[in-house]
Structures are given as structure tokens and as C-alpha cells.
Amino acid sequence: MGLQIPELKTGESIDRLGYHGLRIIQNPAKFKFTMDAFLLAGFIEPKPTHKIIDLGSGGGVLPLLIAGQREIAAVLGIEIQPELVEMSRRSATLNGLADIITFEMVDLRNLSSSFMANSFDYVITNPPFFELNRGVISENSGLASAKFEINCTLEDVAKSAARCVKADGKVAIIYPTERLDELMVTFQKYHLTPKRICFIHSKNNAKSNLVLMEAKPGAKKGLSVLPPITIYATDGTYTRIMERIFHGENYFEILYNTL
Amino acid sequence: MGLQIPELKTGESIDRLGYHGLRIIQNPAKFKFTMDAFLLAGFIEPKPTHKIIDLGSGGGVLPLLIAGQREIAAVLGIEIQPELVEMSRRSATLNGLADIITFEMVDLRNLSSSFMANSFDYVITNPPFFELNRGVISENSGLASAKFEINCTLEDVAKSAARCVKADGKVAIIYPTERLDELMVTFQKYHLTPKRICFIHSKNNAKSNLVLMEAKPGAKKGLSVLPPITIYATDGTYTRIMERIFHGENYFEILYNTL
């Protein structure tokens, strides 16, 4: 299947995504990907047979990264903003990945399609980080709803993740560390047992700003906190581990082989 | 006040405790201190006016370390095993600290003395780590009750900590990382909000085995996960930070001044 170059709309550009030849359509007024997507993509360990769902897929960066760097069966991104769903679809086509990646306009608070219940081996999500009472909300509604709990709260995300995931599946999330206790309490409410955690520190003497967590539905307790990931070395460049994550390597491979 | 050399009972010895001239009476059949006490003592930041309670004080190592290394008003250790209470009292006398440190035989499940309610600036605890269904329980009841939830569960500890701590006080605990989610959920049940966490890793490529957590009663949410402490360097010697903690330095001073 040949790659098609899709038409770009006003404000959009085609940007490089990582080091595997992937590209993504972005619009700074609507969606710009962040490092968070690389961190979460490097944390999960999907198998070639796995079906994955991304809850709140924004501009489609997580599905693109995963399908572009790994062998997987299918990844579905659901997103409430129709213009982002449409833009994501064009990015999938741009990369020749439209047969593996699907995007649907779905409100995750309202997962009504029965095909979504207990259907996914991996549920992944990079949800809004901040409560509505925190900070100044961007006037731009697209950007705001990616950062603030306008369209969904942590509880909505946990509830819908618990609904989507297969009984032997996994749920992986990236979230602000300062809300870790809420994350654990909310996941437990929906019987998602935290099994693996990795903290992200911007520098090695800084407190953690982000946390990667993987949970399993109904699993017995027993949590592993892995060695943390530090983003920047003391000279301000990316650490070696962060460079490898940007290159699409899996954190666990890095950890067990070379750390 | 001159130091008194107390009489030793069968099986007891006087051992060095850290690098400040402290000594402790131990009996390998009843109680031996571990590195955990140094980690917790180095994590808390008591003020000279503070009254501290240690829930489940065992052989008295935490009160001795804190009163021996810092200026504090008073520290009370409560312990259910009478022979350990008696041995701890002799250690306090041995170090000339009996005017600051008190030990009482109290079952923490049953804190009935009204003087203990909302009375302490710091509640500290190094409670039993393992549920009764985990592993082989030592035949020695003294050692077993320090490791296994024979005399108290995590919930008993959280409940009694919430009862003892002043409204503007703090609760600090060292606990197995694999039970972090239970720790957070249980503390939240008793309105103890986690505010600071530090993970302990035996080596820098190993998962965390222990976690230090400080919580405040009724505090608003917002958690800091500090840079982790690694115990051993790659050559098997203690790391520089661990050496400093053994020397009685506070983790936060180390962190903010020199890391």
C-alpha cells in the first residue's frame, strides 16, 4: 500500500515523530504531542496479537507511536473532539498505518458500544492531568481539554478503562506524581490493581513530576516500583535512557539488558 | 548525669548504634535492629520542641537514634512485648537518655490513655511488614511479631497513628514498597494524606524494596515523590548518601545541599 500525502488544513503542519520515519499532522492551536507519549509508549509491552485502546487519543500520537514501532494487531483511539479524530485519521493514512489504527469519536464517559466491553489486551491513556480548579485554563478549548478535566475526570477514565480491558489485560497510564494517591485509590475503586510503577524525574535531584503505572483488573496485590527514569543529565542534555526511549526502545528491555 | 552500665541478661549484648557513640542492648533471639531504623530516622525532620511517639518500638532503636542524634523534647516508644520494653528502658539509661525517652507496654490496638490522643507532633512507625499468610513465620515469637502482622495489622497502625497525631502533626512510616497501594488506601481511610515519599532501592537497577512515607492528618492532596535512595553502589559498598544517613544526617539536608 503506497503512502498518501493528505491535504493539510489551515494551521496544520507535518512533523517528524521520533526516529522511525513516523510523521504526524499537528496544529499548535489544537494539539501538539509531548514527551509523555514516548514515555508511555516505552513503558508498555504489547504482544503482536494484542488489541489496544487509547482513551482520549488527542491528535493520535500514542496509536501512531505504538503501531509505528511495534508489531501489534490493532489499536483504536477514541477521542471526543471530532476535528482531532479527523486529523488523527489523516496521520494514520500518512504513515500507511490506517489498516492497523482506527480512530472513533467517542465520549469515554459513555462507552455504549458493546464491542468495547472487555475487548482490549491493553488500555492506555494519557488523560487530562489537572482538576478544573487548578491554574488558568487555556482559552483554546482543544488544548484545554487535553490538560484539564473538562471532558473527563480521573474517575471517568478509571471506570471506562475497567470496562474496556479484558479480564487478563492491562491498563497503563501516565499521570502527575502529585496525584499518585488519588490514582491508586480511584483505580482500586474500579478493581484495577497497580502492579508496576515507574517514576519520572526531570533531573536526578528533582522530585518526580510524572508517574507511569500499569494495573491489572482483579489481580492480587503486589506492586513493583521500578528504577526511576531521569530525563535530563546534569549538563542539560537528555540522559542515555531517555534517548533510547525516544528511539522507540522499551523501558524494560533497556532496564534488564544494560542498566 | 553519669551513665550507668546496666546489668545484661542471658543472650544480651551491648552493640554500637551508628557513629554518635550510641549503644543499644540487643538479644538476637528477641530483637536486632536493621537499616530500616536509620532510614526512617534520617527521613523525619523533628523540631527541638517536638514530642514523638514510636508505635511498636521493639528494642527501642528508633527512639534511641532520634534522641541521640537530634534535639527533641520527648520521645515515647510503645511496645506490646514486656521484655522488649524493659530492655529498651535499660538502653535509654545506658545512653543517659532516660529523661527524654520513655517506653511503655501498650497494645497499639487499644490506645485507651486519653493523654495519647492528638498529643504528638510526629508519629513514627516501623511496623510488621508481612501479612500472616506470607512466608514462614519464625518460631521465635518476639522476632515473628516484629515481621508479621501477629499483634497488629497495617490498619491497626494507621488507626492508632491517626488517633495519636496532633492536628498539625505528621505521621512517618517505613513499609515494603510492594504494599504501597494498601498503605495509601489505608491511610486515606483514616484521613492521613500522603505528602512526601522516598523510595529505597538496594541497587540502582533494582526495583524498590522499601518506601518512606510522611502523611498529614486532613491535609489537602498533593504528593511529593523525592529522589530515591540507593543503598549499595555497583561495587557493593554503601553509597555516599547511605553512609551519610548512617552518620545521622537528615535526608533532606543531604538532598538540598549536595546532591
Helix content of chain A: 25-40%
Number of domains of chain A: 1
What is the multimeric organization of the chains shown?
homodimer
Radius of gyration of chain A: 17 Å
Helix-strand pattern of chain A: EEHEHEHEEHHEHEEEEHH
Q: Tally of extended strands of chain A? A: 11
Helix vs. strand class of chain A: alpha/beta
- Proportion of β residues of chain A? 25-35%
CATH H-level superfamily title of chain A: Vaccinia Virus protein VP39
- Give the end-to-end Cα distance of chain A, rounded to a whole number of Å: 39 Å
Describe the sheet with the most strands of chain A. 9 strands, mixed
Quote the CATH topology of chain A: Rossmann fold
> What is the level 1 CATH name of chain A?
Alpha Beta
Characterization of the model:
- The structure is a homodimer of 259-residue chains.
- Chain A has 8 helices and 11 strands.
- Chain A has one domain (13-258): Vaccinia Virus protein VP39 (Rossmann fold, 3-Layer(aba) Sandwich).
- In chain A, strands 3, 4, 5, 6, 7, 8, 9, 10 and 11 form a 9-stranded mixed sheet that branches. In chain A, strands 1-2 form a two-stranded antiparallel ribbon.
- Chain A starts with 12 loop residues before the first strand and ends with a helix.
- In chain A, helix 1 (35-43) crosses helix 2 (61-69) and helix 5 (154-164) packs across helix 6 (180-189).
- With 259 residues, the first copy, chain A, is an alpha/beta fold.
- The interface between A and B is medium-sized, with 30 and 30 residues.
